Amino acid sequence: MLSRIAYAFRETWASFRRNLTLTAAAVLTSAVSLLLVGVTFLVQRGFDNLLVRWKGDVQLIVFMTPDATTENVAYVDGVIRSQPNVIDVNKLSYLDKPASYAEAQQLFAGDPTMLSLLTPETIPTQFKIVSLTDDSALLRSLADQYRILPKVQGVSLAEDEFEVISTLSGFVRTVTIVMSLVLLAVAVTLIWNTIRTAMFARRREIEVMKLVGATNWFIRIPFMLEGLLHGLIGGVLSCGGLWGLNRAWESGVAGFKPGTGVSSLVVPSGYVSGVMILLLAIGALAGAIGSGIAASRFLDV
Known about the structure:
Elements: H1 2-18, H2 20-51, E1 60-64, H3 70-81, E2 93-95, H4 97-107, H5 112-117, E3 126-129, H6 136-147, E4 152-157, H7 162-201, H8 203-211, H9 216-253, H10 269-297
Antiparallel strand pairs: 1-3, 1-4, 2-3
């Protein structure tokens, strides 16, 4: 058993050296395509962070100051509920300090600087409002009314963020997915072609192995292992690139004022690690598919 494993790795390494140019092309193409896949995941998570506060058709958010009393909150709640023809009072929700802090932890999950400035005691509480109208002018009029209420820190409107974010998110996601799928298909094709070339280069050796009784799987395994390593090495390179891009983005965002929407685009390190594991799996799978097809189709050379 050990001799067979040693043979498989020895032949894989020999094939790597024989087809260095094709191997490099396949690995680099795999790395670029997987990097795009990883960037797509990170960008989508960042946009999801930006939109987390607008879930449930929320169109207005009224932020109360951290020192607002129960009476202040009750007064603002009464003003909001006094307009049932405009506000869906059944969907009106109030997030107290623990709930607001929990949402902030998700919203600014990748921004430790911002989170360090927030505590359950100092974070503003908030009313989330679902309106019964899509009239932009009316919603802005309501926002202006709420801003002058006592202990109201500010009012945010969904339309100021949602349309641009959703459009940009959809565009970036579509473009990166299409590009990554195209490049991934090219990578699989290059791996397939690399394995095919390697098998043709060793056709005499394969004929001899068959004559002495070697099974098809014994012959295929080194070639399939080579393709799998192509994809896996590409995955490792893409993980390095993704890590570098993410660190550069975090450093760039650190220069913005804490609390700006840009800081929400930073994703937590745990999520980045999960994406890297996924890239390694996709790379190995792509390599196995390309080499498996070639090793099965061109065995009779």
